[in-house]
Amino acid sequence: MKRTRPLQKFVLSLAIGSSFGLLSCSNKQPPNIVIILADDQGYADVGCYGAEGFQTPNLDKMAAEGMRFTDFYVSQAVCSASRASLLTGCYSERVGISGALMPWAETGINSKETTIAEMLKNKGYTTGIFGKWHLGHHTQFLPLQNGFDEYLGLPYSNDMWPVDFNGEALTAENADLRPWKLRYPQLPLIEGNEKVAEIKTLDDQATLTTRYTNRAVQFIEKNKDKPFFLYIPHSMPHVPLGVSDKFKGKSENGLYGDVIMEIDWSVGEILSVLKKNKLDKNTIVIYLSDNGPWLNFGNHAGSAKPLREAKGTMLEGGPRIPCIIRWPVQIKAGSVCNNIASSIDILPTIAAITGAQLPENKIDGVNFLPLLKGQEGANPRNTFFYYYGGELRAIRKNNWKLIFPHTTRTYKENKPGKDGYPGKVKDIAIEMELHNLDKDISEKNNVLEDYPEIVDELKQMADEMRKDLGDKLMDMEGPGIRPAGKIVE
């Protein structure tokens, strides 16, 4: 069973929400929460962020009616770690989940962690998830055991299947080039705790976005008279790409653009059903990506321009992602937020808004409600730690980012793949660098020698964090790390 927080902390969380006049407003029902998470969508893959070759009218409208963030981060630029952080309000290192969990993994989200779904369920919310989970595929790790009332989706990434990059099913006879893919089982579509179908072909992949969207719409219709939390973690635009006939060939940017346009359509369907049921003004809709684009897939990948590198790195193109939040009346239309914020801040912000009880375990997120409210001078997060696989690779304070020496992948030194096939990826060694991200968003100008006092300050802050979450680059253990869940026989 989940442990509860002491009463006085519960009262404090109520006071935080009440201080903004949210719990005492005229709405009898607390605000609904909708989080839409794309997979591998780059920083420049939304119209209002500079997308080219395709249109995202619904996301652009969300931004025009809400707030667009320019400096929004996920905690680690890879699937499982990013999702663990979003749902728990913690750096992924703290909850023991790193990288991307494989279909043979024997770990998953720990039952002692409190997810957003569990937090809101304790406030009387109905909860649903329709899409990619990727926090453990064994029954004990699945959504219904972690606060969700309904689930339909894939337990992990859509490329974890015994199918070649061209869509051909692989067998022992034809898998000589990619024998490692035979280790993958057939890709299961799960409803509740049971497999209800298998995704075996590219045509099956093309149904996923619409499947998730239709179920999300049904969920809203069914629960329109009570508060709900809806989580839609799309499988796309993670490769292999799949798009329905509604959008096939619609963009100027090939299949990738088609896929993004269908995700944008999905956002429009969610917004439409909210408006139809007169829920849109009392619903917070959050749109973001789990990390940057997988650039070695070439024309089947997006863009992180003008950022440096992409998915799998902690250079800006990896963890900095598009994020748009719509909440009519509460958020000034057309707002742009240039403050640092992160997916780990979503849980405590929702807690402040709804008066929900914060998790008993330590979290790393901060409440960014003052940013949403446009509070003058608000700056709830001025620091961000760039962990990857247990390595503290960089730290940011305000506009200064200090990168520590480490080895990382690069997409720049090899030709990218094409039409679903990946190109090669190379690892490179990076020395210590200092960048002013306000003036140098692309991390091109290393000013390490010019600001020794800034370097010293950031080094000291990093040392303090290492005492909590450790650092494999320094062979330091992290006493603040909690273990991932393990299979219970």
Can you offer a commentary on this structure?
By secondary structure, the chain is α/β, with parallel strands linked by helices. The chain folds into two domains: 13-381, Alkaline Phosphatase, subunit A; 386-486, 2-Layer Sandwich (Arylsulfatase, C-terminal domain), CATH 3.30.1120. It is built from ten helices and 18 strands. It has helices at 7-19, 57-65, 79-88, 116-121, 202-205, 208-222, 254-276, 346-354, 369-372, 452-469, and strands spanning 32-38, 67-73, 107-108, 126-130, 150-153, 187-191, 194-199, 228-233, 283-289, 323-326, 335-342, 383-388, 391-397, 400-403, 406-410, 426-430, 433-436, 485-486. The strands form four sheets. Strands 7-6-5-4-8-1-9-10-2-11 form a ten-stranded mixed beta sheet. It has a four-stranded antiparallel beta sheet with strand order 12-13-14-17, covered by helices on one side. The longest helix is centred in the middle third of the chain and has 23 residues, at 254-276. It is globular, with a radius of gyration of 21 Å. The chain starts with 6 loop residues before the first helix and ends with a strand.
SSE diagram, text form:
Layout: H1 7-19, E1 32-38, H2 57-65, E2 67-73, H3 79-88, E3 107-108, H4 116-121, E4 126-130, E5 150-153, E6 187-191, E7 194-199, H5 202-205, H6 208-222, E8 228-233, H7 254-276, E9 283-289, E10 323-326, E11 335-342, H8 346-354, H9 369-372, E12 383-388, E13 391-397, E14 400-403, E15 406-410, E16 426-430, E17 433-436, H10 452-469, E18 485-486
Parallel strand pairs: 1-8, 1-9, 2-11, 4-5, 4-8
Antiparallel strand pairs: 2-10, 3-18, 5-6, 6-7, 9-10, 12-13, 13-14, 14-17, 15-16
Helix pairs in contact: 1-8, 6-7
